[in-house]
Each structure stands twice: as C-alpha cells, then as structure tokens.
Design goal:
CATH class: Alpha Beta
Shape: globular
Strand content: 25-35%
Helix content: 10-25%
CATH architecture: 2-Layer Sandwich
Number of domains: 1
Structural class: alpha+beta
Radius of gyration: 14 Å
Largest sheet: 6 strands, mixed
Number of helices: 2
CATH topology: 60s Ribosomal Protein L30, Chain: A
Number of strands: 6
Length: about 130
C-alpha cells in the first residue's frame, strides 16, 4: 500500500504551502495532517494575538482541512500540540475542549520554545476517514 497525497495546499481553496511538504497524506484509511497554525488559510496572515484566539483559529483551520478531504474533528485519533509558552496550556486546553467535547483524541503537548514569529501554537494530527 502506498501513500496518496490528498491535499497539497493549505486547504482546498487556500494558499500554497510554504515549503516542500504536503498538508494531508493518506495511507490506507489513515490521514496524516501537517502542522496547522493560526494562519488564515488563504492569506497566510496570523489570526489572533492571545492563546485563546490562536487556538480557535488553529483548530478551525484543522477542521477545514479535514472536511476538505472527507473527514472531521470527530475522526481525529491523535494530536500533538506545540506551545511557545507552556504556562498558557490551561487557557489553550479550555478552547481545545470546545472542539473535542467527547471521544478525545490521544494527545501530547510540547513546549516548542519558538515557532514562527507571533505564533503561539501549532498542532499536528492523525485522523481517519469515516467508515
């Protein structure tokens, strides 16, 4: 079984990615989603200043990408959350819980030290397609 590239752009109608990577790769029924940040999917401008605003923008972008390839947040199996400031973890977690109110994905949160200038959060996900 080989990998299938499902989405090369930031979203179906979004901007091109900024490097040599693919936004969504499919292998079998599993989707591997590249890091999503609080960026407008069309303009690539940072959305929000606070960790709450940036978390919502990041997860909204992830939701869009998943829906573009026929999946949804309900089908996220695993998440890695990168934070520039681990002291903001609790505030991020409150917003995150609004997007994943039940059937939580497995998750790891990592202090990233520094992401792109002005970005406080980035997430990477593994999801599946619906049965």
């Amino acid at each position: 079984m080989k990998k299938e590239i499902l989405l090369k752009k930031r979203s179906k109608d979004g901007a091109d990615v900024a490097g040599p990577y693919t936004t969504v790769v499919k292998h079998g029924n599993t989707l591997y989603i590249a890091g999503q940040a609080p960026l407008d999917l069309k303009t690539c401008e940072i959305v929000g200043e606070t960790i709450e605003e940036q978390t919502a923008a990041t997860l909204d972008g992830l939701k869009t990408v998943l829906e573009d390839v026929g999946s949804s947040l309900e089908h996220v199996l695993n998440m890695t959350v990168y934070l520039t400031d681990m002291s903001e973890w609790e505030r991020m977690n409150k917003v995150y819980a609004q997007y994943f109110p039940e059937n939580f994905p497995a998750r790891t949160a990592v202090g990233a030290g520094q992401l792109w200038e002005g970005i406080k959060i980035e997430v990477q996900a593994i999801a599946c397609l619906p049965d």
